[in-house]
Amino acid sequence: MVKNSLGREIPESFNGKAYIPYKDPHSIVPETFHIQRASRILKRNYSGSSKVVGGLREAIIASGLKDGMTISTHHHLRNGDRLLNDLVKEIDALGIRDIRIASSSIHIVHAELIPYIRKGVITALECGVNGPIGEQISKGELECPIVVRSHGGRARSVISGEVPIDVAFLAAPYCDEYGNFNGFYGPSACGSLGYAMVDAQYARKVVAVTDNLVPFPALPFTIAQNIVDIVATVDSLGDPKKIVSSTTKLTKDPMGLQIAKYAAMVIDASGYLKNGFSFQTGTGGISLAVAGHVRDMMRERKIKGSFGCGGITGFFVDMLDEGLFEGLFDVQCFDLKAVESIGRNRKHQEMSAGLYANPFNMGAVVNRLDCAILSATEIDVNFNVNVNTESSGLLLHNTGGHCDVANGAKISIIVCPSIRGRLPMVRDEVTTITTPGETVGVVITERGIAVNNHLPELKAELIRRRAPVKDIHQLRDEIYAVTGAPKPVEFTDKVVGLIEYLDGTIIDTVRTVRA
Amino acid sequence: MADSQLRRTMLYVPGNMPSMLQNVPLFKCDSVIIDLEDAVNYAEKDAARNLVRRFLQSWKVRDKELLVRINPLYTKWGHDDLKAILPEMPDAIRFPMCETAELALELDAELAKYESANGLEIGHFGILPSIETVKSVLNAYAIATSTKRIYALAFGAEDYTASMGIARTNSGEDLMHPRMMIVMAARAAGIQAIDTVFSDINDMEGLRKETELVKRLGYSGKSLVNPRQIDIIHEAFAPRQADIDYALEVVEAIKQAQQLGTGVISLKGKMVDAPIVKRAINTLQLAYAQGLVDTPVDEEILNG
């Protein structure tokens, strides 16, 4: 074990692979790892015939999937996804074992995979997870080494070949027989296919799986025929009702609204809210309330923003349609309005996860962000943020773009209630570090605003505006005065997962909790 | 003359909800009214009393006016409420169903008894009577002048309409007369008037209109039950820029006059007298509270 620069103990190797401990947000470069862009064998297909081979089983056979290989899927169908579950069932039925899953994310619906992990069909997860799989792994009830990556970090690991994908099975909501597809239309429409774009470029075999085979050509394509090997057809890719988030709504909780108001004050005081402003926010009720304030200020001051970014909601679509932004960069659509918009508006730009946030290229979109609103499960007095585990110590959430956006944006703003249940959310130490404090600008709870030391001018401006600015230690003390100081959760020495930073270094580990 | 305490927003918080009480220090209202009366079911009266007491013990840095709404003294809970709450030093008691001056005097006597027994100045605790029946509307002036503890009259429309046998409407004609009666009684007595709760928490435009109306009538603020209404009410009570500019000129004129030692002050050919100064100070207080001016106004200039 070695300590990384944040004092977290990191194993030198994990699941047979060596890792480098986290150092700082910016100094790691591709040369540090001696990596280059992954190569892919050249192919020649002189046939113009259909690539449809049948259903999933035929596609698996045709792909040449064997024991020990790595597969991937994308998570644009989110909790409505059926593909990954059905795929693993078929893989099992074909007697294939020891498969690594390198999907872009895994959701609660994929708890169905648990028996196949126990059975040895799946033996490693090269991706973060939401829900029961992570929970069982961190309780020590399920054995399956897991490496949690951010969206940008995952794109990096695929593009560099650190995680070589043998077969990518990509849900294709609107697809033709020769393999052109997009996510805009059809019963399983999910909008952007940003997470699938990287896999389609770098997987050794690409299988487009569709429940909506349309006559050639399926235009406009997101992923084109020249990189798609096989087309498979299925009855259904998933449950459309769960593909898009429940309608995204502003919070009505008074404390949440207070947090949103403070966040708006911070954005206003930042000096970036002028023509050319760029902004990313999440889909939670507080994030949307912040977006509401931002929209109102932009309207009132006749500000024309540059772009909105990230997972896109109807809220951002309305701002685009109203002319408040020049365009949207969309790696993932969160609701039907966003899906509808991306299919009709060229200024609503689909973007790959690599373009969005891969740190190892000539510039990701997150680098151009002025202000970003991010959430947290916990924050510590060094501004480190946890989004992976909860205070119970259980691994329940994937990183998403959290550390990528914090790393890229000029000001990253963390919004979080000060207390959840009976637990303080600003603490001496977070259970798990997802995002290093050095990249976090501001922490906002309903009890006040803590500004990190690297933004002294913002802090002074907020004080001048009589905003409730507090030292983060004071914030912690005020919360502890209500909740008391929490006793840390006890962990065993057994490392069951790694939290990878976007540059490929290891920022923290997940250990099993001591019950 | 009415005191200068800002009471734009007087937020009710149920005394039986720990999750809400915990947030009392965080609400950005001018006053908070912790409720032991209507919000609390009869079976929970004692539990709520204990909870509120414990909460008040823990709330050390009080940054807003604190009232507790007790049960009427003619119920079996009213006196126990007082006994539990007064040691925690609220600023005032919100007194429900205060239909007559005699009822106000009964509470006055209870408070005086506690004050003298505990070495507090007589008159330490204020009273905010709820004018919420036809009878109390008709007695408003007598109630307002019954004791110096009463610093405002608070209108309660729900019980009022019930006592009139009418249904409350959003348009508000039904409330016009009592609103006028109450604000006139209050102003005649030299105290503030606080308007009733606007109950449709999803109609922010309606809330804004109603607040603008009562502001024009002379009310100083509103009672409210949902913290989401705070910002709207504060915005509605915010002074216009022209009024702020004028108020700043008045204050500047006063300061200059004081330096020169002149007694009579005029501004742009008009005499500036005490009510004008008072109004200017009130305007600047509202403006400061709303973040429209950077420095708080110095009330001492009134005494110069």
Description:
The complex is a heterodimer of chains A (515) and B (304). By secondary structure, chain A is α/β, with parallel strands linked by helices. Chain A has a domain at 254-489: Glutaconate Coenzyme A-transferase, CATH 3.40.1080.10. In chain A, the strands form eight sheets. Chain A has an eight-stranded mixed beta sheet, with helices on both faces. In chain A, strands 5-14-13-10-6-7-8 form a seven-stranded parallel beta sheet, with helices on both faces. In chain A, helix 8 (254-269) crosses helix 9 and helix 10 (314-321) packs across helix 11 (336-342). Helix content of chain B is 44%, strand content 14%. With 304 residues, chain B is α/β, with parallel strands linked by helices. Classes of the chains: A alpha/beta (515), B alpha/beta (304).
The low-confidence runs of chain A, each spanning 5 or more residues with pLDDT under 50, are none
Gyration radius of chain B (Cα, Å) is 20 Å
Largest interface by residue count?
A: A-B, 12 and 10 residues
* Helicity of chain B, as a percent range: 40-55%
Number of helices of chain B: 12
- Please give the CATH class of the largest domain in chain B: Alpha Beta
Task: Please identify the top-level CATH class of the domain at 254-489 in chain A.
Answer: Alpha Beta
Distance separating the two termini of chain A: 23 Å
CATH topology of the domain at 254-489 in chain A: Glutaconate Coenzyme A-transferase
Strand order of the largest sheet of chain A: 18-17-16-15-19-22-26-27
Helix-strand topology string of chain B: EHEHEHEHEHHEHHEHEHHEEH
* CATH architecture designation of the domain at 254-489 in chain A: 3-Layer(aba) Sandwich
Report the CATH superfamily of the domain at 254-489 in chain A.
Glutaconate Coenzyme A-transferase
